[in-house]
């Protein structure tokens, strides 16, 4: 059974200043999502699920529908402020979506196979898709999941701080804990510091770029966790339920384990408007090197 790819595309783009999920970066006007779709298809995925806000659905269908029809099945999952919120909480006031863990939960009905999860605005590289597809098709344990890890130094922005899931990995290659650090940046001395905590991290520290591989058994566990989280945070309009919270619970409860798969693909992403020229140049270089055809579609 071919795996499914969930694309987290419901973010508000507050720091970017626009809908970066649909912004054009490639030499022919490609979005970053286009490259993930292209790589997922050639890596052997069988379905795409876009996790979006309802108001983006028509735009996504216009941009991606013609490219995907006839090549791969695709669907939409809507991440609403009330989605999976316990009924007794009533109407919840939110300033932004509930976060990546909640977004994943919102795709439960559309996902019947082992699946990967990625950000819409990150370029991950073909090798990452190949590795996660191999894991999802070969691993037979319902409680065995995976994380595609990158070196921290390869994931920073020259234009401001970044949020990264910093990983600790045991001798067996399994994730022990992933901690979301929200304000990471390189210093003039070459160290990488989290401005919130003051902690320093080495350049090769493995980090999560939100490229996960899960079995469907994670959905009921995530549902229970989010229900509890929503009850505790329904009056906090900016509280976010991250996927690393789910991963940490799997590990600490013994309900699952996550194999950390090291990955040497090129990664780059878009956090700030100033990142755009860098991403455009990087994509042009990949086309020039024939790693992608002149026309993706």
Labels describing this entry:
Spore Coat Polysaccharide Biosynthesis Protein SpsA, Chain A, globular, 25% strand, 28% helix, 7 helices, alpha/beta, 297 residues, two-stranded antiparallel ribbon
In short:
By secondary structure, the protein is of the alpha/beta class. It has a single domain (4-288), classed as Alpha-Beta Complex (Spore Coat Polysaccharide Biosynthesis Protein SpsA, Chain A). It has 7 helices and 13 strands.
Can you offer a commentary on this structure?
With 297 residues, the chain is an alpha/beta fold. It has one domain (4-288): Alpha-Beta Complex (Spore Coat Polysaccharide Biosynthesis Protein SpsA, Chain A), CATH 3.90.550. The chain has helices at 32-43, 57-68, 100-105, 126-138, 218-233, 243-253, 276-288, and strands at residues 4-8, 47-52, 73-78, 115-119, 122-123, 144-151, 162-169, 175-186, 192-194, 200-201, 206-214, 257-262, 268-269. Strands 1, 2, 3, 4, 6, 7, 8, 9, 10, 11 and 12 form an 11-stranded mixed β-sheet that branches. Helix 1 crosses helix 4. It starts with a strand and ends in a 9-residue tail after the last helix.
